[in-house]
Specification:
- With 173 residues, this protein is of the alpha+beta class.
- The protein has a single domain (25-172), classed as Muramoyl-pentapeptide Carboxypeptidase, domain 2 (2-Layer Sandwich).
- 29% of the residues lie in helices and 23% in strands.
- The strands form two sheets. The protein has a seven-stranded mixed β-sheet with strand order 2-1-5-6-8-7-9, with helices on one face. It has a two-stranded antiparallel sheet with strand order 3-4.
- Strand 1 and strand 2 (38-42) form a beta hairpin.
- The radius of gyration is 19 Å and the shape is globular.
- It starts with a helix and ends with a strand.
- It binds zinc ion.
- Zinc ion (ZN) is lined by residues 98, 122, 127, 129, 153, 162.
């Protein structure tokens, strides 16, 4: 026993930090800005994507208007992971503004004054609208653009950035 060997002054540096042991570099933390629900998930390990984690993510990112879910393109999660790393916040929380959208929801938004593309990649579960607490939205946009991994839409007035894993392109919403 450490305590019997060195008493109260026994240093604790030798004890493993449980947080460090459990921490995975492929952990993502989400906060849904509409429902207030959080999701912490390790979506990948050394063997690749984890199916149970992807299923949880597909559920979490469902269309909030219809409750329908879609299989997300898992490259989106790698993109988010790399984005947080590039921003120096690998354990940062991602505020989700919008995940999957059914064609019905997309058309509803498009015809109700929202800046939504007719062929939005949200309908293919290849896109997500996010902000990162503590990171200015313009900096988030610049980090996403620097990755060259897909589309980046900058919605300054609503304070979020759209990222997707489609063609590399950019726009201002
Ligand atoms: Zn979007």
């Amino acid at each position: 026993m450490l305590t019997s060997a060195c008493g109260l002054v026994c240093p604790t540096v030798a004890e493993p930090n449980p947080q460090a042991v459990l921490r995975s570099p492929f952990q993502l933390h989400f906060f849904d800005t509409h429902s207030g629900k959080r999701l912490d998930v390790v979506y990948r390990d050394e063997n690749g994507f984890k199916q149970t984690a992807l299923t949880r993510l597909n559920n979490y990112l469902e269309d909030r208007r219809t409750g329908e879910m879609h299989t997300y393109d898992p490259r989106v999660f790698d993109l988010l992971h790399d984005l947080l790393t590039a921003l120096g916040k690998p354990d940062g929380e991602i505020d989700v503004i919008c995940g999957y959208r059914t064609p019905w929801s997309n058309e509803y938004l498009r015809t109700h004054g929202h800046h939504v593309a007719r062929q939005s990649l949200h309908m293919q579960a290849m896109a997500i609208d996010i902000r990162i607490p503590g990171i200015p939205t313009a900096r988030l946009r610049d980090a996403a653009l620097a990755l060259h991994r897909g589309g980046v839409g900058y919605y300054a007035s609503n304070d979020f950035v759209h990222v997707d894993v489609g063609r590399v392109r950019r726009w201002v919403g």
